[in-house]
Write a structure and sequence with these properties.
45% of the residues lie in helices and 6% in strands. It has 69 residues and is mainly alpha-helical. Strands 1-2 form a two-stranded antiparallel ribbon. The chain starts with a strand and ends with a helix. This is RIKEN cDNA 1700015G11 gene.
């Protein structure tokens, strides 16, 4: 589309030109990296929870704690 004005060369107008990138826009690579780090952290948490709940803490013998002498 050309706009004609007096004594000037026609200027080219791009109504759908390059879009300005906003800081809040997330690229595909960034979202992929975020997902990878989230999955790694999730795996670490699951491993930690499995170690924690694998063997319950032994219940102490009540005779040792409550000495009636």
């Amino acid at each position: 589309m050309c706009l004609h004005s007096r004594d000037d060369e026609p200027a080219q107008v791009y109504p759908e030109g390059p879009r300005k990138n906003y800081p809040s826009d997330v690229t595909a690579r960034q979202s992929l990296n975020n997902r990878i780090t989230f999955m790694r952290n999730l795996r670490k948490q699951k491993r930690k929870q499995n170690k924690h709940f694998a063997r319950p803490a032994p219940i102490p013998d009540p005779g040792i704690l409550w000495d009636s002498s």
